[in-house]
Amino acid sequence: MTDEIDWAARADAELLARVENNVLWLTINRAESGNAIPFYVRDRLIQQFRDAHVDLGVRCVVLTAAGTKHFCTGADLSIRPPVTATPPEGAPERIVGGGIDMMRRGFQTLMQSIQDCEKPVIVALNGTAAGGGSMFTLAADLVIAADTARLIQVFVRRGLVPDGGVAYLLPRIVGMHKAKELIFFGDDLSAPDMERLGIANKVVPAAELESATREWAERLAQGPTKALGWSKKLLHDAMEYDRRTLLETEAMMVELNAGTHDGMEGMNSYREKRPVQFTGW
């Protein structure tokens, strides 16, 4: 029965997590299901990004997936969350507004947890990112793609409206006309085209994906974590704020950063003509 399933144990098995050299590696481990994400993996991802935000031992996050065919094909809707409350007699299975609430708590929250995470987030794109799965490549800070990877805004093929924040993120990266082309036609986008459009930062042979990602991730994990986090926030705010508000925010963040250990270490190492040693705080 559904209420006998250990969802936490499933999440442990289907989202692998390890920390190495201050890098949190998250691996979606559902290759047999196209690395589609059921609700319990989605919720575990949200928690991982939120925990990484405040964990001083984590200074960069990498998200990738098992196998070589699929990175993530979106939500796995074949697995439904358990019902936690008994509805009143005569209540319909679905009520108006229920879908809206589900989306807010689902992939929309997941997208925001990635963007709100102070630590740099790298997607190591090992295969196809389709539909909601493409959200990860758009929400991440950096994307390194295997040369065999593809991105598909598959919604139109299913008669669906894009979700997971895709319509917000995509035109900010590729421009409005190109975003409409990708969403209206739903054609496959190759890894080289992702790089050309600015969705991927670099494309590498599939066999080199992990090593190339590790190089960037560990470099970021040795950087000034607070400065990186505030830079990330400032860049995101720049897409929303007017000039005056952004400059006020910039001044505040510059002053805050000057009081951090790494901010002072950067200036001291420069004056003392010695190698810098950042701690992450």
Walkthrough of the structure:
- The protein has two domains: 2-221, 2-enoyl-CoA Hydratase, Chain A, domain 1 (Alpha-Beta Complex), CATH 3.90.226.10; 225-271.
- Strands 1-2-3-5-7-10 form a six-stranded mixed β-sheet, sandwiched between helices. The chain has a four-stranded mixed β-sheet with strand order 4-6-8-9.
- The termini are far apart.
- It contains twelve helices and ten strands.
- Helix 2 (39-54) links the parallel strand 2 (23-28) and strand 3 (60-65).
- The mean pLDDT is 94.
- By secondary structure, it is α/β, with parallel strands linked by helices.
Labels describing this entry:
281 residues; alpha/beta; six-stranded mixed β-sheet; 46% helix
Supply the number of structural domains.
2
CATH architecture of the largest domain, please?
Alpha-Beta Complex
* CATH level-1 class of the largest domain: Alpha Beta
* Helical residues, percent: 40-55%
Q: State mean pLDDT (0 to 100 scale).
A: 94
Number of strands: 10
Topology pattern, helix = H, strand = E: HEEHEEHHEEHEEHHEHEHHHH
Instruction: Report strand order across the widest sheet.
Output: 1-2-3-5-7-10
Distance linking N and C termini:
47 Å
Proportion of β residues?
15-25%
CATH H level of the largest domain: which superfamily? 2-enoyl-CoA Hydratase, Chain A, domain 1
Major beta-sheet overview? 6 strands, mixed
- Uncertain segments: none
Query: With helices defined by DSSP (H or I, 4 residues minimum), what is the helix count?
Result: 12
Structural class by secondary-structure content: alpha/beta
